[in-house]
Write a structure and sequence with these properties.
The protein is an alpha/beta fold. It is built from 9 helices and 11 strands. The protein has 2 domains: about 180 residues, inorganic pyrophosphatase (n-terminal core), CATH 3.90.1640; about 110 residues, Diaminopimelate Epimerase, Chain A, domain 1, CATH 3.10.310. It has a 6-stranded parallel beta sheet. It has a 5-stranded mixed beta sheet with strand order 7-8-9-10-11, with helices on both faces. A hairpin with a 4-residue loop joins strand 9 and strand 10. Helix 2 packs antiparallel against helix 6, helix 4 packs antiparallel against helix 5 and helix 7 packs across helix 8. The longest helix is centred in the N-terminal third of the chain and has 16 residues. About 45% of the residues are buried. The structure holds manganese (II) ion. Manganese (II) ion (MN) binds next to loops. The site of manganese (II) ion has 6 residues, from loops.
């Protein structure tokens, strides 16, 4: 049995692509199942509901198992005992990480907006059947990762995939489909500061130290007006407890592509010069991968 596992703090792509990749492996005649490393978010819950698919089972240990990784290739984002697993495959759309394997593996790493875009093309290449449920999972993951095609990470391949998938999924009104998805994505009602930071937190080893950068996608920055101090306190707590050199969270208004960066840690002073009126605003910044983190890497170096 092959376990297909997305990254820690799973986003919709990590869950949907794990489910979809497991079906691709089954279509090849293999035994496979999707697993998840953490709780699913509200957007993913919405997607699973409309696709009529159950969430993958929770599993944070893969020792002794055969695994496929989807949506990452970094050790920091893998299950803690990944070194004791046999990695058979990777499907990803991020920079190449530091995963090492003992044996040759099947790796599909494309510079596109979403892991599901690659999987869609693999299904086509292998003439594997795409059910309406799988089509809904894939198009939702693509629309989530590309923020409804608005992100600079979005490519023609992502758009072409959704164009085909929406017919298979029998989605007649794509705009309404995207709107419902983005409403679920930006719903932060009732979440604590710690839950918000944790929501989509990624760890990056950098210059021999550990750094974390989270992102909260919002319909308006006003949604977090009353929480700034609590969010900063939570970042500070993480630096102290986990020995991080830097902890940040990008608060991104996905309607205007404006991001406010909150940050703490030993390296925080490196960013002070970019503050205005006590705030660090990043204009035209939707993507952590293509905009936020590359900029931070040059500033923190
Ligand atoms: Mn992704």
């Amino acid at each position: 049995m092959i376990s297909v596992v997305g990254h820690k703090n799973p986003d919709s792509d990590s869950i949907c692509s794990a489910l979809v990749a497991a079906e691709l492996l089954k279509a090849r005649g293999l035994e496979a199942k999707a697993v998840r490393q953490g709780e699913i978010n509200r957007e993913t819950q919405h997607i699973l509901e409309i696709a009529g698919v159950d969430q993958p089972e929770l599993s944070t240990s893969v020792a002794g198992q055969q695994v496929w990784l989807v949506d990452y290739s970094d050790v920091a984002q893998a299950p803690d005992d990944i070194k004791d697993a046999e990695i058979l495959g990777i499907v990803d759309h991020h920079r190449l990480g530091d995963i090492m394997t003992v044996n040759p593996l099947e790796a599909w790493i494309w510079p596109v907006g979403c892991t599901s875009t690659i999987l869609f093309n693999l299904f086509k290449m292998e003439h594997a059947p795409i059910t309406p449920a799988l089509a809904k999972l894939m198009m939702s993951a693509i629309l989530s990762d590309t923020v409804g095609f608005a992100s600079p990470t979005c490519t023609d391949k992502d758009k072409a995939a959704v164009e085909e998938l929406k017919s298979i999924a029998e989605v007649a009104d794509l705009d309404a489909f995207i709107k419902a998805l983005l409403i679920a994505k930006t719903n932060i009602e009732g979440l604590s500061a710690a839950e918000l930071v944790e929501k989509d937190l990624k760890a990056y080893p950098f210059n021999g130290r550990d750094v974390v950068v989270g992102q909260v996608e919002l319909a308006t920055l006003e949604q977090v007006d009353g929480m700034i101090e609590a969010l900063e306190a939570d970042l500070e707590r993480r630096c102290e407890q986990d020995g991080l050199a830097f902890a940040a969270v990008m608060l991104t208004d996905i309607t205007t592509a404006q991001t406010r960066l909150l940050y703490k840690g030993e390296w925080a002073a490196k960013l002070e010069k970019h503050q205005q009126n006590g705030m660090l605003m990043m204009e035209n910044t939707l993507s952590r991968k293509k905009q936020g983190w590359p900029w931070l890497q040059t500033e923190l170096a």
